[in-house]
């Protein structure tokens, strides 16, 4: 006669951790063990972060560096941030020099999520890493931390990095930094690489607050108008289009004559018209 299997007579390795029960009991040791179960580790890491027991830090760091998938790694990084143990930052900073590029990439991402400004110098250095993915993670991390001290390094990456993904992430990071980063984005409208000019203009336009919760065009303000007017003549159509839209957001009447001229541009005429309507509507 067949017998019904249950948790008691199943092999120990097949018994799934009851993360909800472990969390309710604040069983940190049990939750740390649950990090070893692929199906349970996300919930276990979240629970450990909410409990906030610092004894979980070593296991969370180990999991951070042994798990594939950016979204999953961010769970461990977020748990470390919630626990708030400052000792994690030196460990992660040290990992930025690891020989394994995935470890360096994960460390940069985790430092961004944790958000401690003490990591900024190391992340600035990581922008020079030989591997594109690490440079991308470093620029993202600096954007998450939001320290204005990173602006020169991010502007340099936007201007000169050989990889478009790095330049794009540098532009977005400048946007996330906000007020301190906006002048660098305006200056980037003059860069030689059209891709960099496009990236800067796209972030400054910040459609639907996609790159920053702040109104970046408003922060750029009247000081940016002469540069944006010149950008209406850019050889790249997307830069011209974005410049017109940004001028509309700023609302400076100095932009009216060049925007009227831009109506002759078949590609950007709609943006110019919308911008003119906004400026003239404010009179």
Task: Describe it.
This protein is mainly alpha-helical and 283 residues long. Helix content is 63%, strand content 0%. The chain has 18 helices and no strands. It has helices spanning 19-25, 28-34, 41-51, 57-64, 70-83, 88-95, 101-114, 120-126, 132-145, 151-160, 164-177, 182-188, 194-205, 216-220, 225-231, 237-250, 256-262, 269-281. Helix 7 (101-114) runs parallel beside helix 9 (132-145), helix 16 (237-250) packs parallel to helix 18 and helix 17 (256-262) packs antiparallel against helix 18 (269-281). The longest helix has 14 residues, at 70-83. The N and C termini lie far apart (89 Å). Residues 1-12 have low confidence and may be disordered.
How much helix, percentage-wise, in residues?
A: 55-70%
Task: Note poorly predicted spans.
Answer: 1-12
Number of discrete helical segments: 18
Distance between the termini: 89 Å
Strand portion: under 5%
Described by the principal axes of the CA atoms, the overall outline is: elongated
Features:
18 helices, 283 residues, 63% helix, mainly alpha, elongated, disordered N terminus
């Amino acid at each position: 006669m067949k017998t019904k299997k249950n948790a008691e007579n199943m092999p120990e390795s097949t018994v799934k951790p009851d993360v909800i029960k472990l969390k309710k009991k604040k069983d940190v040791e049990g939750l740390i063990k649950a990090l070893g179960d692929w199906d349970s580790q996300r919930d276990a890491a979240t629970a450990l972060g909410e409990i906030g027991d610092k004894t979980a830090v070593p296991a969370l760091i180990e999991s951070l560096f042994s798990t594939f998938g950016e979204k999953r790694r961010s769970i461990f990084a977020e748990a470390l941030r919630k626990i708030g143990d400052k000792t994690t930052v030196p460990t992660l900073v040290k990992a930025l020099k690891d020989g394994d590029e995935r470890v360096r990439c994960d460390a940069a991402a985790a430092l961004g999520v944790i958000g401690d400004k003490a990591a900024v110098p190391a992340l600035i250095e990581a922008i020079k890493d030989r591997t594109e993915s690490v440079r991308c993670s470093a620029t993202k991390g600096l954007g998450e931390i939001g320290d204005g001290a990173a602006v020169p390094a991010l502007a340099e990456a936007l201007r000169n990095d050989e990889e478009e993904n790095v330049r794009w992430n540098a532009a977005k990071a400048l946007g996330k930094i906000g007020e301190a980063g906006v002048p660098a984005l305006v200056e980037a409208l003059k860069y030689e690489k059209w891709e960099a000019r496009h990236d800067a203009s796209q972030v400054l336009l910040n459609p639907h607050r996609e790159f920053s919760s702040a109104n970046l065009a408003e922060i750029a303000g009247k000081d940016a108008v002469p540069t944006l007017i010149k950008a209406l003549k850019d050889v790249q159509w997307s830069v011209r289009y974005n410049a017109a839209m940004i001028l509309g957001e700023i609302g400076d009447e100095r932009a009216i004559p060049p925007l009227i001229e831009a109506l002759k541009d078949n590609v950007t005429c709609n943006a110019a018209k919308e911008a003119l309507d906004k400026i003239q509507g404010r009179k």
